[in-house]
Amino acid sequence: GDSVTQMEGPVTLSEEAFLTINCTYTATGYPSLFWYVQYPGEGLQLLLKATKADDKGSNKGFEATYRKETTSFHLEKGSVQVSDSAVYFCALRPNSGGGADGLTFGKGTHLIIQP
Amino acid sequence: SAVISQKPSRDICQRGTSLTIQCQVDSQVTMMFWYRQQPGQSLTLIATANQGSEATYESGFVIDKFPISRPNLTFSTLTVSNMSPEDSSIYLCSAVTYDALVGGYTFGSGTRLTVV
Known about the structure:
Chain A has 115 residues and is an all-beta fold.
């Protein structure tokens, strides 16, 4: 079945550091890929998404590029802030020919940014 | 994107009892889903809530344990039946509008359930 693997946390960085959170997936066909963020005490929010190979999703300074050849969707940000501290989830939606399926999630990466 | 209200936000329940979680969406959506997030784990899809018909359950989840209703396009309930401490988790409702690829999937804020 489909699966998503992302780097284990917690990841601790200093403010203004460069961030990479790795995400790789296993799926048949051409899934859609997502990054969700969960801030402390809040619900899941969509951060960015990509629906086909070579698409780049971006939002709030975060970027991720859909790499079909490496089955990856790594999340990056050039300069992190304390307010970016949260849990980040990589997820995929199978390519099921137009229907809307539930998402398959990675285990989440807890990011801690220190001042 | 749609806004989801989920309640209760948290509850502490005795083993052997049942809890019903409600999910209300502020607009008509095509699909609604229920997930479980066990402590320190990722989100696992429980089922797809189908409007006017029986829910579609994922492997490892059954209707007797997690009955789901969806009487209309904006409302769904999940019941956790005959609870045991292993059911202690966060349960989340999710909804997707017609064009899921544009709008993405929206999530409720979750119900934190503790079974004692």
